[in-house]
Amino acid sequence: MAVTKKIGIPRTLYFYSFFPLWKTFFEELGMEVVFSPPTNKGILDLGVKDTVNDACIPVKVFHGHVAALRDKVDCIFIPRLISFKGSITLCPKFLGLPDMVKSSVENLPSLVVENLHLNRRYFALPRFFLRVGKRFTNNVWLIWRAYFKALHSWKIYKAQLLQGYYPAAKGTRDVVMVPGRKRNEGSLKLAVLAYPYVLYDPFMSINLLKSLEKMGVDTYIPDSMQPTQLKRAKRHLPLNLFWYYSSQVTWTSLYFLYEEKHKVDGIIHVTAFGCGPDAMVDKLIELEARKNKMPFITITIDEHTGEAGMSTRLEAFVDMLKKRKDGTVS
Ligand code: SF4
Fold this sequence. Notes:
The chain is of the alpha/beta class. It has two domains: 6-162, 3-Layer(aba) Sandwich (Rossmann fold), CATH 3.40.50; 182-326, Rossmann fold (3-Layer(aba) Sandwich). Helix content is 47%, strand content 16%. It has 13 helices and twelve strands. The chain has helices spanning 15-28, 41-50, 57-69, 92-95, 97-104, 124-134, 140-162, 196-199, 208-214, 227-234, 244-259, 276-291, 307-326, and strands at 6-9, 32-35, 75-77, 80-83, 110-112, 115-117, 165-170, 174-179, 189-193, 218-220, 266-272, 296-301. A hairpin with a 3-residue loop joins strand 7 (165-170) and strand 8 (174-179). The protein is globular. The termini are far apart. 42% of the residues are buried. Iron/sulfur cluster is lined by residues 56, 58-59, 91, 93-94, 195, 245, 272, 275-278.
């Protein structure tokens, strides 16, 4: 059995795509997994203090999560996520994440950094886990068993996302899957486009999903799109974007603009301040929405975005669309 160690996992960025995979793997190795607490003002302030000024908000928040973990664990897991299958890669900030953290956050415990290059070679994912596992144990059978159990948890998680569930914080230590809003015939339907680390993080998104639910709005989000739907949407983009999360957002918008045009009444794009890819993606969606006469709003999240300001814009947009749907305004 592996030596029991406490390993910290920052609850942001790629966390929302992979946490069941990582958590199960380390627990099966006999380790204690500690997630950083849900994002709060203290974590944001820590991140802003430690990060270079021109970093995007999610990267600043990531630094804050690492700082929040440093005194609580023996090591912190920060994989360098480089590519997904095909030509899809991750934005450069993901590639430089471990180096940025090392040079900016003081008094760190050891970092567990391994490159994950899913389009490089066969069996990239098991090889990645073998390298990570060998840092803690020489028992290769234990590592393989942990890997397959982790893979199983991840598959269940991805299936839940496709069914419309999304991850929410359970206390300060865990995560629970909550059902997205049930589809109601007459209610307003909106495509809500954002990266998972913005959308599922109530502090970052200023509770956007819950606010829309309270307003009686049904939402469609990128993670709940079936792969076949995204494949159809891709055909409307002459050139693929390089970055994984930006592509998911763009394809989802194109799906509702071209493939199932009448399924939603409008599109909300939530962008993170300082995000390079978003500068392009937002304009692209805006132009496509305009061409298709689809109501569209951009909400930009920055360090100073307040709930009051965002609610006012959101309510105005939703009210306008409800009136349009009722035929009160054209
Ligand atoms: S995609 Fe944008 S928000 Fe995400 S890490 Fe890269 S620059 Fe930051």
